[in-house]
Specification:
It contains 7 helices and 7 strands; from the N terminus they run ββααααβααββββα. Strand 4 (126-131) and strand 5 form a beta hairpin. By secondary structure, the protein is α+β, with helices and mostly antiparallel strands.
Length: 196
């Protein structure tokens, strides 16, 4: 196996890489980013990155003022190699369905309006997708997704609304029970606020 690093200022085209060694040596990484691998790995560990995929690692590293994408990729690759046995991506989904004795438009207002939503769901959410007054998908701070869909279970009863809550892209099954209880409590609060 051969691993050569060109001296001085380098770019991706000046590297020859075979095998599973680091793409950039420790000194070069420190020279360019101000941190060596151990320091980057420590920061990533503190951020809980052991369970992240490569794209999330890259986004996080880019947020740390690493100007060159090549150096970001080098750190993400090395970290991924070190934690390959830890990160087993799972796509866990929590799904809850609740029928609420309120018109669809009333329930939608408690989902659509941020101030009203805080009465039953006090989380930081970033809207990702919307389908009229029937469905909205949010991205949560851990990059998982929360989907809230509304429907009328019985067409002749306008005062009933079925809410389907799906929390997808969960990657850590240690928190499924706790998260499920959280969503159950949120839906109970939604029933309460819609019946006021």
């Amino acid at each position: 196996m051969e691993h050569m690093v060109a001296p001085g200022i380098t770019n991706v085209f000046q590297y020859h890489h075979e095998g599973r060694k680091q793409l950039v040596d420790d000194e070069q990484l420190y020279e360019i980013t101000g941190r060596n691998y151990a320091q980057w790995f420590e920061l990533l560990d503190e951020a809980g990155a052991q369970l992240w995929g490569k794209s999330r690692l890259v986004r996080w590293l880019k947020g740390k003022d690493v100007s060159n994408t090549y150096w970001v990729e080098a750190v993400a690759h090395a970290y991924g190699q070190q934690h390959a046995d830890v990160r087993v991506p799972k796509n866990i989904t929590i799904r809850r369905v609740k029928t609420i004795a309120a018109p669809l438009i009333t329930v939608w207002s408690y989902i659509d309006d941020e101030e009203m939503r805080r009465n039953w769901l006090d989380c930081e959410l970033r809207e990702f997708q919307r389908v009229k007054e029937k469905k909205v998908v949010f991205i949560l701070s851990d990059f998982s997704r929360l989907s809230l869909s509304l429907s009328q279970p019985i067409k002749i009863k306008d005062d009933l609304t079925r809410v389907t809550l799906s929390h997808t892209r969960l990657f850590d099954d240690r928190y499924v029970d706790e998260t499920s209880l959280f969503w159950d409590a949120c839906l109970v609060r939604l029933v309460d606020v819609c019946s006021m």
